[in-house]
Amino acid sequence: MPNQPSTENQIQFRIHPRVFAALGADLVTNDVVAVIELVKNSYDAYATRVDVIFGNDEKLGRYLDIVDDGVGMNRETLEEAWCVVATPYRLQNPIVSKGRNTRRVAGKKGLGRLSAARLGNKLEMLTKSASEPCWVVSVDWSDLATEKSLDNCFAKCEHFAGTSPFKEAGTRVRILNLNSDWDTEQISDLEENLARLISPFARVHDFNIHLSAPDTDRENLSTEIIAPEFLSHPPYAIRGHMAVDGEVKARYEFNPVSGGRPRQYSYAVSWSDIRKASEIAQKLSEDEPDCGPFEFEIRAWDIGSDDTREIAERYDIAKGKHSESHSR
Fold first, then answer.
1. Which of 227, 259, 275 is the last residue of a domain?
2. Which among 55, 256, 288 has a CA at the least distance from the CA of 172?
3. How far apart are CA 32 and CA 119, in angstroms?
4. Quick one: which of 13, 168, 184, 292 has the most CB atoms within 10 Å?
C-alpha cells in the first residue's frame, strides 16, 4: 500500500532511520542482555546448539559470533520477517518445527535483531534453510543512521559464494566493530546469565550453549554452559502428574538449604474435585479434561536477603549477582 501524503487535517507518521540505534540502545538495556536476546533467537529457530564466540582477527578486528544449528532462514523469511522491525511473525507463528519435533518460541516483540545494532556497528549474517542455498546478509547500522528516510535503508542480501559452514541448516550472526571491550567480569556476567537459559531438568537436553571467551584459543577454552547447581536443589517443590481422566497425584517436598528437617506430603485429587474447587474449571462442560496425561514440577525459593545469602554460601555463589539474576 503506498504512503498517503499529509493533508491539512492529518499529518503522516514517519520513522527516522535512527530508530535502529535508538531501539537497540533503549530497549536492550545492556550488552549482556543483547547477547542473550540473540541466543534466544537461536532457540526460537529450533537450534540444539549455540556457540557464542568472541574472536580477534587481523583483518576483521574484534568480533562476536552467534552460531546455531537451527532451521535457518530462506529469502522470503529474510524479507518478510527479519527485515521487518517489530514484526508480528512470532506471534503469528508461536510454534517452530524441525522434522517431527516442535518447540514453542520465546520471542514475541520482533526486536531481537536490534540487539546486534547495540553490540557493534556492522553485522554480517550467514543463514541457510534446508530448502535454499546459503545467504549472506550485511548491514552497516552506522550508515543507516545517517539516512534521512527508511525508504533509503536496505540490508544487502546475496547468495553466499563460499562453502556453507552448516551441515543442513543454521545461522551465523557476526557482529563487527564492537562497541564495548568485554572484560573478565562482563564475560563472567554473560556466562551466568546464559546459564539461566539452560533447563535445570536432567531429562531436557535439546538446547546447549557453548561460550568461547575473547582473545583465547577457541578449541581449548570453549565452555559448555550449565544450569546453576542450586536450581537442582529447591527448598520447595511440587512434583506430580495428571492422568488422562484428570486425576492429579502430586507430592509436596520441603528440603531446607542448610539445617532443619525435610518434610513431604503426598495427595491425590479427582477431576470432579478440581472442577468444584476451580472457578475456571467450573465453566468447562467436559466431564473429563481435553488435555493430558502430563507430568509437572514446580520449584520455588525464598528471595529475602537472609535466604539468598544462605544459598550463596551453600553453593559458593556471589550473593549480589545471584540476587540480581534470579529474583526478577
1. 227
2. 55
3. 9
4. 292
